[in-house]
């Protein structure tokens, strides 16, 4: 930030025109510098340029063009270099293509199909190194959209898939790959293009109809996680949002979306970039001048205008007018200026900007990148089904049989060498097509003609090849199908190009009828874009997915068809998981926990789980450590037996899952303390396997009578969480299926006073407590502790007894407040009070302090039922609060509050921090249910 501070002090930034220039990202059409882009840089001080396929002819030309842009900026007196950005998502969305120097890699979904986040990192790192070599310093990626409704969304294979955790995992891997190559990142398209409704005319915006709660549980998860990991910038989409809590015409123009949702709720402090304001719907509804002002007011730091010079000038004049009319403050402009300059300081300098290494570096990188490309494409090829065992073709088809290839007329991918010279279609695009990447071009014949040539060369036999259209199965197709022994039908987004679906089903029916008549016809369907075309249609017996149809992908497909390698790809997202569950409802190998071996793996697992917690939610996991699960009792004091289990990768020592159990002999109660599963490995039966092993271990205890789900010591998983209702409902169903009684849960709460210094007791509370004449005192250590332990033993669960034992062994930071009867001096209530840095923090992460402020604890009140129980509880809490304030704690946490006690304490000024449902079952019921689940 020091460099940025100096740049902000540069006199030029005091000039409004110079400061505003850093608030725009602009583009132009043409492969040479035009007067348009020169004027924007020299006269209007525009500080960021977006390059597209219309600017780029190859690596050498791109490096020269970028260098010329930076030279113009330097000579015009720009204090810092230009931000040069482009789309290079791989698969079909590559703005820069050069078959001699720039490598082709799979789409985001194709990379995810490899099942390897490490490959995602390597591919992104290689891509970024190539872009950096030609002078580009920002990539418009990664795509962080979750395909909530994957089968019908225009993003298709540009997105990782439909599972938010998997999208997060691969998105962050890609982001780190870019950043480690020195390029800044821009996640897109916030809040989501993954479930758009296309309802109106060509001028209407596609609409997000999901509620904020639904978005928070799915679409926003990858953005939230990427922000935590250091995402540099975010592009805010131009879609509309219409739900009960929000009615937004254009997301990138709405302060509800940019300032409230992205900045405040998700905590993003980087650069926000608007969708291009030249889109028809926006310019028609609002106008670019007003739209520019609204985008900046909403919180956008860079306003994107891709093409028209007149529109770009209109936007610049609009922003200046907005400042002059006091609609936008100078401080607001300076805030965006500072963010943009901070971003530039991460990725560029004049030395770097004016001297791109270009072809010399690309020549060195190219051989290793080609190897990586081949490896990634081969690993991405996915055989969804091969029920007839037709693969590989080299083993099943005789040389004298004819092979028929049927391919559709579709949009090829702009990275295709065969299609670089084709003209853009002049046809009217569909509403979905407008939301596909703008550089797609028409006519896929050449791509698939090359596929046919590859097949013919590989097979050394006769190949028949023709295309099909919306006209369906014609006589020419019928004749060729009759001749061929094996038919390969290629589809590309058949769910949106329905003629492909109908054609393929018709061919499948013909092959079935001919085969039943004695003429054996083998059918292979290959999806070369969206894998969802026939993913769930088991009538297509052999189904292969490639995730894009570049020449590189087609080469990998041919090698897979003829057995040069065995395809290992799997469909990303929920389809991958559901398929694995179907294939392997087997129990995972569960091993006993070993501290030396598994401690580091558990800590990593906890960190991975922390990232899935919503920012506005609490969790016992936050701040937890692996040490929490090993309780510190000596053999003389031990009242708890513990057994913990893991599912792990024995090769890498990574933990896929962890389960903790505790047994209390005195009460014959077994407790399931926690089940953790790696977010990327959920729905694969890992939790089921751990649960079964844990129950088996507990039910072997000779005297066990009761099982409890949720544990107070350690206080990490107290039961089913109620802070997330949908997740809580799902977990309750799961545990009910596995034998737990969900009909009468015990409700437990964690309460808090967040600003303790401003708290005052409610009016009349002190008088009420004094009126009943209970005696209250505070003790530390084991002296006088016997009466406390007797009281807790008689009225509380075993884990609460253990917690009191721990508190008594830590007199420096813990004490016990006692309430005594005025009649006979007998104890009528106790509570633990602790201050910051207590030893209990290890076992109760809710007490964890980040160092900036102290957290005081009031823990485990034990107040037997009586007419005066409420006033006793309030008296104990009041003394606890006073102790916390005396120790200058900024926050007070009251943990392990039973449901019937909650309202009494809320009336004192506490708020609910977290809530849980503790479940229990008699051992016989769970024993019967678990044995049934095993079967």
TrEMBL record:
GO molecular function, one term: hydrolase activity, hydrolyzing O-glycosyl compounds
Any Pfam family hit: Glyco_hydro_3
InterPro entries per record: Acyl_CoA_acyltransferase, GH, Glyco_hydro_3_C_sf, Glyco_hydro_3_N, Glyco_hydro_3_N_sf, NagZ_Beta-hexosaminidase
Keywords: Glycoprotein, Glycosidase, Hydrolase
Ranges for domain Glycoside hydrolase family 3 N-terminal: 28-343
BP terms from Gene Ontology: carbohydrate metabolic process; peptidoglycan turnover
Transmembrane segments: none
Classification via PANTHER family: BETA-HEXOSAMINIDASE-RELATED (PTHR30480), PUTATIVE (AFU_ORTHOLOGUE AFUA_8G04060)-RELATED (PTHR30480:SF8)
Similarity section: Belongs to the glycosyl hydrolase 3 family.
Identification of the protein by name: Glycoside hydrolase family 3 protein
